[in-house]
Each structure stands twice: as C-alpha cells, then as structure tokens.
Amino acid sequence: MADPLLLVDRRDGAAWVRLNRPPLNLMIPELIRSIRDTFDELAHESGTRLAVLTGNGRAFTAGMDVRVMKDLTVLSAKALITLLHEAIHTVHEAPFPVIAMLNGYCLGAGLELAMACDLRTASTEARLGLPEIKVGIPSVIEAALLPGLVGPGRAAEILLTGEMISASEALQWGLLNRVVPGDQLEAVTSDLAARILAAAPSALRLQKELIVRWRQTDLRSGVEYGINAFATCFATGEPREAMTAFLEKREPRFGG
C-alpha cells in the first residue's frame, strides 16, 4: 500500500495510518480515495486487529480543500460528497477498532472522519469543529454522528455556529477519550491500542461489529444481535482460554 498521500506503518497487529499532505492534510479527491482504498484493503487482512488514524504536520486534517469545492456544480458536488462518504463509511464499518489520534486541527470532513472512528485521542492544542456553515454549505454525511456523541443541543451549537471548540471542551462533552500534551500523545494512544489488542481477537471483532450495529438499529434488534454474537464466540477456543487464564491468575494466550 505504497501511497505518498497516505502512509501505513504496521506495529504488532495495528496499522498506523497517517494522512500525508502536511501541514494541514487538506482533503482532495486523491487523498479521499486513498483513505477508502486503504481501509478497504486493511479490512480484508486478518492480521490487522486495530488501526490508528492520524495526520502528519500540524493537523489531523483541517477538512476539505476549499479550492476543490469553490466551483462545484450540483452534479460534481454530489459526486464529491458521495466519494467522501464512501471513504468515511469504510473507516466507520472497519471490522476492527479504529482510534483517531488528533495532533492538531480536526475540522469539517476531518471531524466527520474522526467521529467515524471508535475512539479519539487528542493533543491539548487540538481544535475541533464543523465550519461548513461559514462557507455557505451545511455539514452533512457523518456529521449525523455528532448528536449521538455530544447530545442534540451541543451538536446544534457546533453545526449552526461553525465555531471551533478546544480539546478540553471536546473532552468534557464526550467527543474525545483522552487529551494530553502533544509530546505524550503517541505514547498515550499506543497504550490505549495495546490494552485493546490484549483482548481475544475474535471477541474484539465481534464487539466492534456490535458497536456499529448498535449505532444503526433499535434496542430490540441490538439485543438480538448481541445474543447471536455471544453464542458465536464459543465456536472458538478463546472464551475457554480467557476464563481459564482468569481463574489461574495469568495472562491469556490466544493463537493467531
């Protein structure tokens, strides 16, 4: 997956994926396609158990390059936003957990991409927002995830003002999981990834699948999915090994 716009570094079952259009990693169609194609490829690799998505430079991504959007027509606008949705949807539906590591600005399409991830860590310098309203367009596609993360009132404030919020505010609102100084961000994210990767591989995939389904369905269907997932996991030897290890006060040893 050699791609100058998107760098992939593999570390012990995790794929560290870096947007590589510094300093702001502004979104252009070529980068959007790279995100879509890379996560589609990772989804078909059994060895990828987790991904960390971040950006090189001083931003996760400051969003779409306005120069790409300025002269869009109705048809080309629909094609571009559909492509962006395809890319973000591929991240959202990945069969493994995805952590967004926000090293700076996370705006517009960048915040939609981060919200499609399962967890989000950020530096204290990070700023988050959906400024589309300031350039004459609404925030769309995965911006629909925002009310579920911060509540309808706070979501409306972010969407209707287009103003940025600080990392500390985003943490208080539940939009972020960790906020630390920039020089500690990668270590904290690596620690979070390692604690997730300690789980049984099949159980981890089943749990991620359930998380996605719970976002998209009613309570009764979500419970039914969970019953099936619980039973399915016993087709592997992982529950026996994990529970035996617990009783024997040792670390579990999972194969594969």
SSE map:
Layout (H helix, E strand, L loop, with lengths): L5 E6 L2 E6 L9 H15 L6 E6 L3 E3 L4 H4 L4 H19 L5 E5 L2 E3 L1 H7 L3 E5 L3 E3 L16 H5 L1 H10 L3 E2 H6 L5 E3 L4 H13 L3 H16 L2 H15 L4 H10 L9
Parallel strand pairs: 2-3, 3-5, 4-6, 5-7, 6-8, 7-10
Antiparallel strand pairs: 1-2, 8-9
Helix pairs in contact: 1-3, 3-4, 9-10
Q: Give, in spatial order, the strands making up the sheet with the most strands.
A: 1-2-3-5-7-10
Order of helices and strands: EEHEEHHEEHEEHHEHEHHHH
Terminal CA distance reads: 23 Å
Q: Which strand-content bin applies to the residues?
A: 15-25%
Average pLDDT confidence is 96
Number of strands: 10
CATH class of the largest domain: Alpha Beta
Q: What is the count of structural domains?
A: 2
- Can you give the helix content as a percent range? 40-55%
Radius of gyration: 19 Å
Instruction: Please identify the structural class as seen in this structure.
Output: alpha/beta
**What do we call the CATH topology of the largest domain?**
2-enoyl-CoA Hydratase, Chain A, domain 1
Q: Would you identify the regions where 5 or more consecutive residues have pLDDT less than 50? A: none
